[in-house]
Predict the structure of ISL3 family transposase.
Amino acid sequence: LKHHYQLYQLLLFHFQNKEPEKFFGLIEDNLKQVHPIFQTVFKTFLKDKEKIINALQLHYSNAKPEATNNLIKLIKRNAFGFRNFENFKKRI
């Protein structure tokens, strides 16, 4: 358990410091030595390696559009049942 926690902390450190070579190096070195649940996660990371590297290297993100979409859906959900837009505005 201690080994898994230390490995997790190292992976988190390399991910936050945007070091994909070290991140994936750790995964590949420890793939056979970890618990099967970790193996499943590591295999998924290796399968999506190119996408993860792009996310670490590029400064593009869709977080703001996703947040805006979520807000619009929330407002629509709250507006359900109001026949009059003025009544809806009063509620907000």
DSSP finds six helices and no strands in the chain. The two ends are 50 Å apart (CA to CA). The mean pLDDT is 87. Residues 63-79 form the longest helix (17 residues).
